[in-house]
Amino acid sequence: MHIYGPVPSRRLGYSLGVDILPSKTCSLDCIYCQLGHTDKKTVQRKKYFDVDSILSQIKNAIAAGHRIDYITFSGSGDPPLNVFIGKLIQEIKKNTSIPVAVLTNGTLLLHQSVRHALSNADLVVPSLDAATQEIFERVNRPHPSLKIRQVLEGLKNFRQEFCGKIWLEILFVKGMNDSPAHLKKLKKAVAEINPDKIQLNTVIRPPVEKSALALNYQELEKIREFFGTKAEIVAEFDKIRHRPESRDLKDAILAMVARRPVTLADMSKSLGKHKNELNKYCDILLMEGKIRIVIHEGKKFFKSQKQKNKRAMKDKK
Ligand code: SF4
Questions:
Q1: Residues 4, 19: contact at Cβ < 8 Å?
Q2: Global pTM value
Q3: Which CATH number is 148's domain given?
Q4: Count of domains in the chain?
Q5: End of a domain among 187, 211, 238?
Q6: Residue 281: which of 249, 255, 259 has the closest Cα?
Q7: Enclosing domain of residue 54
Q8: Which numbered atom of ligand 1 lies nearest the CA of 171?
Q9: How far is the CA of 77 from the centre of ligand 1 (A)?
Q10: Is the shortest distance between the CB of 33 and ligand 1 below 6 Å?
Q11: What pLDDT, on the 0 to 100 scale, is given for residue 205?
């Protein structure tokens, strides 16, 4: 299944997610990634899936008549790694007026072919967490061939060639890329890229590495002031609690974890929903304290919080 949602998103309204990569295919292995470790760290663009089957799933989702504010390429890695992304965007634009967004880590924009492939999108949201190679390697753990100098060059060239909107996202990890000296360098790099918006984020969702800690709202607010009027905070802190939610899906997840610990892949298989959609509801249940995460042999499992509480009560007696 390549489609998930439409899921409510603060930035994009109701977003129909399109996932065009096998999990998890990326040029980076960010310490804050919520999808786990990168299995296939690559910069090679490939033909991953059949274009017609992806397009027919998008058509069916639109025909279902739900509100869709954006058709958004995101998901199990960096979407431009799929060599067909340009063709997919072109075909979507032929068939609907719904705007198309691409969420990308931005590393492949150094290639003219990738910049060209994204040229028909309405909105591109690249990320940039580092202005130096040292911090790039510490936070994003890139493919060995990637140099931050070239990534920055790619972003600048894309800005000059692309007619749509660019919202540059920066994710801050406490003690990693938030020092005053690094902030100065990032600000300079961002000014040279000249995006339409600068979106500031932090580690809100459970990261792959425990060492990846979030900034608090006040710290992020100071950074927002430092970056100036184009900057906005997109980290959803406790706003995630107030998202519209599907009672049925939350109940179905709770029923599953009450029986046994499950991974996102297990849930996806048995509930017939995309992992990214389920991840959003797991985040809500985590924040509500109804489920918890346990790591076993490098895999992330979700467990019911009730079982732990019951055991604690027994121990007290
Ligand atoms: S770029 Fe995105 S998908 Fe890739 S490792 Fe970083 S956070 Fe995960």
A1: yes
A2: 0.81
A3: 3.20.20.70
A4: 2
A5: 238
A6: 249
A7: 3-238
A8: 7
A9: 6
A10: yes
A11: 80
